[in-house]
């Protein structure tokens, strides 16, 4: 039986073992491409793969669990083991990861619980989740013949709280449901975060996260160990080899040679996990959001991260620069040439059908009625858009005014189908002035959840509840009698393309492309405004003309031989009669 222990060093079968790990999130990579990414990690000379586990995907609705398709973490672990890779798994209730609400399921917002706390009701939800998930992971522990070396307790908790009772409860649940492998925590390298986020009294290894200056950061971690008389190995659990990107900002890049030198410095001093080795894609509505003062800044669909592999899983200059230095310093390790996939630009296709959202609302959503508007979560929805409709009367001949209170995150206001305003966070609450031609008119408000905050104090802020908040005011009073249409956009097969299309309204656009050989490609969304794209009913993510990327990566696994359906949901009234493909990402000149 293989053994893994943490003493003064990491020991694999009683021999000192340097962990050379890279992060690949199975839920950000199409399952058809898992082998490609894992093979390239092994080819680099590394020996371990690390992954988070996203609670909000594995339990999308309370009590509804899944590990199917892209969520088949057991298949991912088995594939890694077959390639000779060990694994580090982080099944934390909270993962950050620039992921929607840091991986916390949005249905928790209706449960009146304090997340990431000792609160009994919250811990019961964690236990329900762990009772489903952890026995599956337990089978893949090293001692059970699998490849998992160790598991993480929570995630960077020292950057959020200091509730040791909560951390102990999470660790106890992990043990209760069969995780017998060593446990660890990961935090910033400075004393404040280590003091708040670690479980030294439980003898749980503390690791540090950083992206440069390994000597200085490891010195801080070692000083913390010395202070508490801990003789543990040094490990950087997240070595940030790139960074994520937000809408409207320049793409962040890091010099490959500088990065390779910084990684080698880290490896000389301890063990490492490259975050990310392969970043992948925020498919669907799963991008996270950064908190900046009063404004939240959502992240883009691509999670390329300027990582060692690009979004498609192909080696970058960083791969070759790092592998070259690895071969010089550690010639005894196993290396190989990386796998490279070719992308193709399929021929341009023409628009087949289009229909306005408001003309087909009842085909894609079930109406819920209430006097006061309900939030997205109260409607049983977690992501996407919500459409609110009511009737209003004309009260003044010289113009009307509206104010929308507490809506999140972005809204568009229509009167009898004509757009009155678009408001983002900093404008929501400002008065909207308009002339109403008829005595009675239909007021429609489309609200988009652009991504919940994934890090920091705003995790528990009221702003993480989406949709309409306290309501809408006409003049000085709240309006009642609302029809509400949840739009997670998970039922597009009923779209009524025979219905009307109106200019300047949110709409669906359908294209077809016939494919003989399925290969990766990129969909060029230049000319469209804002929205999401569906390939054969699969939501591959958001686009926005703000950039910095104007295209969407489409893994070949989402395509099929023969006719493929592409549906674009666009909210700004901008579209193209012809849809173009590319062999690589299309960037906006910012």
UniProtKB/TrEMBL annotation:
MF terms (GO), sorted A to Z: beta-galactosidase activity
InterPro entries (UniProt xref): B-gal_1-like, BetaGal1-like_ABD1, BetaGal_gal-bd, Galactose-bd-like_sf, GH, Gly_Hdrlase_35_cat, Glycoside_Hdrlase_35
GO process annotations (BP): carbohydrate metabolic process
Residues of the Beta-galactosidase galactose-binding domain: 506-564
Keyword annotations: Glycosidase, Hydrolase
Protein name from the UniProt record: Beta-galactosidase
Protein family: Belongs to the glycosyl hydrolase 35 family.
Signal peptide: none
Start and end residues of each Beta-galactosidase 1-like first all-beta domain: 373-488
Database matches in SUPFAM superfamilies: (Trans)glycosidases, Galactose-binding domain-like
Positions annotated as active site in the UniProt record: 156, 238
Lineage: Bacteria, Bacillati, Bacillota, Bacilli, Lactobacillales
């Amino acid at each position: 039986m293989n053994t893994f222990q943490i003493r003064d060093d990491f020991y694999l079968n009683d021999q000192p073992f340097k962990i050379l790990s890279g992060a690949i999130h199975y839920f950000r990579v199409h399952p058809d491409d898992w082998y490609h990414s894992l093979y390239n990690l092994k080819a680099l000379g590394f020996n371990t793969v690390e992954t988070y586990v996203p609670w909000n995907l594995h339990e999308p609705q309370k009590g509804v669990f899944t590990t199917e398709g892209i969520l088949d973490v057991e298949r991912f672990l088995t594939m890694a083991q077959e390639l000779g890779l060990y694994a580090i798994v982080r099944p934390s209730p909270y993962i950050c990861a620039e992921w929607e609400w840091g991986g916390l399921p949005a249905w928790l917002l209706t449960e009146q619980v304090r997340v990431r706390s000792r609160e009994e009701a919250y811990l019961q939800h964690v236990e329900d989740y762990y009772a489903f998930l952890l026995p599956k992971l337990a089978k893949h522990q090293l001692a059970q013949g699998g490849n998992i070396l160790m598991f993480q307790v929570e995630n960077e908790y020292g950057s959020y709280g200091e509730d040791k009772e909560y951390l102990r409860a999470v660790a106890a649940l992990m043990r209760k449901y069969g995780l017998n492998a060593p446990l660890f925590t990961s935090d910033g390298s400075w004393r404040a975060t280590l003091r708040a986020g670690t479980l030294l009294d439980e003898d749980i290894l503390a690791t540090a996260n950083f992206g440069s200056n390994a000597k200085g950061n490891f010195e801080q971690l070692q000083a913390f160990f010395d202070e508490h008389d801990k003789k543990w190995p040094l490990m950087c659990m997240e070595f940030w080899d790139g960074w994520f990107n937000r809408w409207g900002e320049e793409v962040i890049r890091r010099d490959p040679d500088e990065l390779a030198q910084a990684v080698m410095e880290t490896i000389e001093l301890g063990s490492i996990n490259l975050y990310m080795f392969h970043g992948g894609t925020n498919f669907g509505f799963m991008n996270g959001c950064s908190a900046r003062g009063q404004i939240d800044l959502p992240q883009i669909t691509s999670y390329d991260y300027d990582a060692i592999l690009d979004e498609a899983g192909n080696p970058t200059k960083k791969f070759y620069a790092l592998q070259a230095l690895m071969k010089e310093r550690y010639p005894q390790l196993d290396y190989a040439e990386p796998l490279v996939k070719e992308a193709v630009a399929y021929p341009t296709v023409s628009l087949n059908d289009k229909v306005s959202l408001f003309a087909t609302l009842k085909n894609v959503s079930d109406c819920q009625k209430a006097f006061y508007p309900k939030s997205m979560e109260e409607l049983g929805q977690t992501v996407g858009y919500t459409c609110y409709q009511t009737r209003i009367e004309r009260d003044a001949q010289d113009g009307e005014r509206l104010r929308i209170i507490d809506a999140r995150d972005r809204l568009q206001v229509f009167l009898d189908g004509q757009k009155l305003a678009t408001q983002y966070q900093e404008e929501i609450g400002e008065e909207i002035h308009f002339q109403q031609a008829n005595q009675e008119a239909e007021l429609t408000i489309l609200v988009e959840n652009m991504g919940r905050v994934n890090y920091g104090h705003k995790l528990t802020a009221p702003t993480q509840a989406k949709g309409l908040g306290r309501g809408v005011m006409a003049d000085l009073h709240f309006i009642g009698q609302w029809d509400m249409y949840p739009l997670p956009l998970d039922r597009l097969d009923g779209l009524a393309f025979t219905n009307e299309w109106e200019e300047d309204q949110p709409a669906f656009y359908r294209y077809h492309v016939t494919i003989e050989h399925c290969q990766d490609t990129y969909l060029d969304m230049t000319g469209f405004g804002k929205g999401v794209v569906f390939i054969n009913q699969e939501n591959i993510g958001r686009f926005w003309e703000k950039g910095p990327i104007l295209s969407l990566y489409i893994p070949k696994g989402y395509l099929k031989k023969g006719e493929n359906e592409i549906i674009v949901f666009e909210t700004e009234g901008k579209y193209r009669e012809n849809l173009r493909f590319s062999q690589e990402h299309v960037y906006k000149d910012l």
